Sequence to fold (106 residues):
Amino acid sequence: MMKRFALVMTLCLATSASAEQVADVWKAKCKSCHGEDGKAQTKMGQKESIVDLTQPAWQKAQTDADIREVIADGSPRNTRMKAFKDRLTPQQIDALVGYIRTMKAK
Fold:
């Protein structure tokens, strides 16, 4: 019983740390253009006409693979969106995809 409790606690702590880590990656790598909330209401977001990631239509139109590809390889539609495959691990990129999915407008 005690081993099971320890395992559950370890998993909960790991999940919490992971959520904090992805938020830190977002703040360090994405926030300056996409904004804290993904709405791109930043100077760069407005200058580059960056899409609002919270829009249900955008969320529905983009697959996880599409989002992952843009983060990893950059955007073919906006050359300012550089590739992050050499600066982020595959796990960090996957975590960012999940983080972006949480931004979906209600």
Summary: The chain has a mean pLDDT of 86. Residues 21-101 form a domain with the Cytochrome Bc1 Complex; Chain D, domain 2 fold (CATH 1.10.760.10). The two ends are 40 Å apart (CA to CA). The CA atoms of residues 21 and 74 lie 22 Å apart.
